[in-house]
Write a structure and sequence with these properties.
By secondary structure, this protein is mostly beta strands. The chain has a five-stranded mixed barrel with strand order 4-5-6-8-7. Strands 2-1-3 form a three-stranded antiparallel β-sheet. β1 and β2 form a beta hairpin. The structure holds zinc ion. The site of zinc ion has 7 residues, from loops.
């Protein structure tokens, strides 16, 4: 997608909404998680140039709410190779304000009957057991 970067930088401060995903992980790891929001209130995660829902180019950083709620989850017994040493584990989709994050739910039994939808969790960044790569995780409040 070259050629889409023609306009001038009108951000003007250090909080650049075009920050990459690794930087976003750094922020979450430091307890300073954020998301991007357009004027219509659509939330998204960096890196974003425009709102993925309405195309608005004005994206503002918003503080990521401290607590989210589990929308859905899956107990994984047969992993991809990158998660081979982590099984069984739980992947969950968690709503924080106007955004949804997908990550690994830890601190709970990886069993279907041990997790209730609506469970309140916090987000953090931890390491996969398999390869020590960073991964978004959720822990019950
Ligand atoms: Zn929007």
């Amino acid at each position: 997608m070259s050629g889409s970067d023609g306009d001038s930088d009108d951000g003007g401060d250090a909080s650049n909404p075009k920050t990459g995903f690794d930087d976003w992980l750094d922020a979450v790891e430091a307890g300073e998680g954020y998301y991007l929001e357009c004027p219509d209130g659509h939330g998204s995660l960096p890196p974003r140039w425009v709102c993925p829902r309405c195309g608005a180019a004005d994206l503002f950083e918003r503080h990521l709410p401290d607590v989210g709620t589990v929308e859905t989850f899956t107990v994984v017994h047969v992993p991809t190779p990158r998660f081979a040493d982590d099984v069984p584990y739980v992947t969950a989709v968690v709503t924080f304000g106007s955004i949804r994050l997908t990550g690994v739910l830890r601190g709970m039994e990886p069993a279907d009957d041990a997790i209730d939808l609506g469970t309140e969790v916090t987000v953090r960044v931890e390491r996969r057991e398999t390869d020590d790569e960073r991964v978004i995780t959720f822990r019950p409040v």
